[in-house]
Amino acid sequence: MSDKFAPGVRQDDPLEPRLAAWEARAEWPLTWLAVGFLAAYAWQVLSAGRWPTVHIWLEIWLWLVWAVFAVDYVVRLVLARRKWRFVRRHLFDLVVVALPMVRQLRALRLITVFRVINRRVGSSLRGQVGIYVGGTTLMVAFGAALAVLDAERSDPNATITTFGDALWWTLTTISTVGYGDRYPVTVEGRLVAGALMVGGIALLGVVTGVIASWFVEKIAGAEASIEQATRTEVMALREEIAQLRADLIRPPDSAPR
């Protein structure tokens, strides 16, 4: 995931000019590589060994992309002036580079695409969070379905053997419903499930916060509108009272003829 979206990290850090310049140049190329990675991984999983030669080339492509991401991490680490601070704030990047088992999660760099879309959205924080959450949810769900299917379908005790099963399991897991009719039985599948459970709880929390902020915004707007209307009516009443008071204290000879 792009470190520009890491909590507590500003997009333009004046203390890391070389790192910021590299990230600006590499952001979009790495994003398109993530798109290609996800497409190749999906093709590899969904085709289920129908074309062995194609699978070999897809596997080579996946490892090449993973190597590019690894090089990107190393370059950023070298360019960073405060290296331990960089490592602490980019632990997710380190995990993805160090554990090829979860390398498909690197496709979450597609959040950059939603950042570009977000430029055309108003300055409402609710609108921004809505785009990020919606895009991230779709990417996490699709990646998790592919990953759990890849891990489970070769096991003789597996209950997740088709992409439809994987999507249904992902939906029930990320929503924290968990019917139990589909569940992972392999170690890798359970690791994916654990990550998805944590992600599902976090996403639900953000969605709940977005909905709550929408209600608060609407209520605050209604209250502001009522308050403004009340003030207008009070000002009009004051003017009428002042006019009546002036008419009452006006001398008789000054009355208009």
Write a structural description.
By secondary structure, the chain is mainly alpha-helical. It has a domain at 1-105. 72% of the residues lie in helices and 0% in strands. It has helices at residues 17-47, 52-79, 83-89, 91-98, 111-118, 125-152, 163-174, 187-249. Helix 1 crosses helix 6 (125-152) and helix 5 runs antiparallel to helix 6 (125-152). The longest helix is centred in the last third of the chain and has 63 residues, at 187-249. The protein is elongated and about 110 Å long. Residues 1-11, 108-114 and 119-123 have low confidence and may be disordered. One of its GO terms (biological process) is action potential. It is a multi-pass membrane protein.
N- to C-terminal separation?
A: 84 Å
Number of strands: 0
Radius of gyration: 29 Å
Structural class: mainly alpha
Helix residue percentage: over 70%
How much is the average pLDDT?
A: 78
Order of helix and strand elements from N to C terminus: HHHHHHHH
| Poorly predicted segments | 1-11, 108-114, 119-123
Largest sheet: none
Oligomer: single chain
User: Shape, please?
Assistant: elongated
The number of helical segments is 8
Strand content: under 5%
What is the gist of this entry?
By secondary structure, the chain is mainly α.
